[in-house]
Write a structure and sequence with these properties.
Number of domains: 2
Distance between the termini: 27 Å
Radius of gyration: 21 Å
CATH topology of the largest domain: Rossmann fold
Strand content: 15-25%
CATH architecture of the largest domain: 3-Layer(aba) Sandwich
Mean pLDDT: 93
Largest sheet: 6 strands, mixed
CATH superfamily of the largest domain: HypD, alpha/beta domain 2
Bound molecules: iron/sulfur cluster
CATH class of the largest domain: Alpha Beta
Oligomer: single chain
Order of helices and strands: HHEHHEHEHEHEHEHEHHEHEHEEHHH
Strand order of the largest sheet: 4-3-5-6-11-10
């Protein structure tokens, strides 16, 4: 806890808040690009204490929220029709597909297991040589190394009954898409966890090309307020730079070993983002040389785009155009126990964060 207390210190929070109040002179909109940051901003009441001329916009930083309906349906199809042992992170449990969630499919008899690591799925494959095991691999750049490693691990053990159903998304292409869609965003707080893997390199181009400050930021209240202050100082000076508030965790070069593992297994691909659409080179697919570990190829799953529930405005929320409270179903027809859309399911989803913490 040594490194947590100091970043939750109320005196430091007050100090950064006073500095922000001293520096800010006009209206600014800052988008945080990580569901963990959104959760922390809401849970810790930071949105309520910021000066009224600073607006935080919540970007598409929740990996569960941007996982398309079609791939959730494919995961359910694998478990129900192909009889595989379908494994995934627990967050995916209640996310609705077009017909049902993984939780409902499990209640109806499908063998669906929720794990903390894809390496556990490899162990399950070794223990069940007569069954196919598929890990439904969802996430940003942060989960990609472990998912890639599971394939290398399975290959090392000579397994032929393990494969991955990946739905990996990448932050920089989504940042560009959001900027091209909305000119109200003045600065970004970048996701510290993503940069701890990928480093800062990819963000320099965005800063230069779009003339926008990006501050790579952590997740605790002091981190967030310092990151917001750093962004505001740049905006008030009329400059745009890439800065690293989270340098205690994020080296400029990220984690080269983790990146090397990603590059060994994955290659860039177009990716559908739920609520946003298909973005070129914004996802990762398994390389053809490892196609025996690609569940979609192995089981002949055809890509399919499934229309969203028209009642849910998640797309607007993920682009920062609307807040959860703007949705007519928020807290009424849509709650964490009766979710209409993914942002109400995931602990990192903006709707769930507002439901749990902003209504208190
Ligand atoms: S409150 Fe529910 S229906 Fe509305 S945007 Fe959020 S997830 Fe969708």
């Amino acid at each position: 806890m040594k490194y947590l207390h100091e970043y939750r210190n109320p005196e430091l929070v007050s100090q950064y808040l006073r500095e922000i109040e001293k520096v800010v002179t006009q209206d600014w909109s800052i988008m945080e690009f990580c569901g963990g940051q959104t959760h922390s901003l809401v849970k810790n009441g930071i949105l309520n204490i910021l000066p009224s001329n600073i607006q935080m916009l919540h970007g598409p930083g929740c990996p569960v929220c941007v996982t398309p309906l079609g791939v959730i349906d494919q995961a359910i199809q694998l478990a129900e029709e192909h009889g595989v042992i379908l494994c995934s992170f627990g967050d995916m449990l209640r996310v609705p597909g077009s017909r049902k969630s993984l939780l409902k499919a499990r209640a109806e008899g499908a063998d669906i297991r929720f794990l903390y690591s894809p390496i556990e799925a490899v162990r399950i494959a070794r223990e069940n040589p007569g069954r196919e095991v598929v890990f439904f691999a969802v996430g940003f750049e942060t989960t990609a190394p472990a998912n890639a490693l599971s394939i290398l691990h399975a290959r090392h053990h000579g397994l032929t009954n393990y494969s991955l159903l990946p739905s990996h998304v990448l932050v920089p292409p989504a940042m560009k898409a959001v900027l091209e869609d909305d000119s109200r965003i003045h600065a970004f707080l970048g996701a510290g966890n993503v940069c701890s893997v990928m480093g800062l390199g990819e963000y320099a181009d965005i800063v230069r090309d779009y003339h926008i400050p990006i501050v790579i930021t952590g997740f605790e209240p002091v981190d967030l307020l310092q990151g917001i202050l750093m962004a505001i100082v740049q905006l008030e000076k009329g400059i745009h730079q890439l800065e690293n508030q989270y340098s205690r965790v994020v080296p400029d070069e990220g984690n080269p070993k983790a990146r090397q593992i990603i590059e060994q297994v994955f290659e860039l691909a177009s990716q559908e983002w739920r609520g946003i659409g298909v973005l070129p080179d914004s996802g990762l697919q398994i390389k053809a040389s490892l196609s025996e570990f690609d569940a979609a190829r192995k089981f002949g799953l055809a890509p399919k785009q499934v229309p969203e529930n028209q009642e849910c405005i998640a797309g607007q929320i993920l682009k920062g155009r609307k807040k959860p409270m703007d949705c007519p179903h928020f807290g009424k027809k849509c709650t964490p126990s009766t979710p209409l859309g993914a942002p109400m399911v995931s602990s990192e989803g903006a709707c769930a964060a507002y439901y749990h913490f902003a209504q208190e």
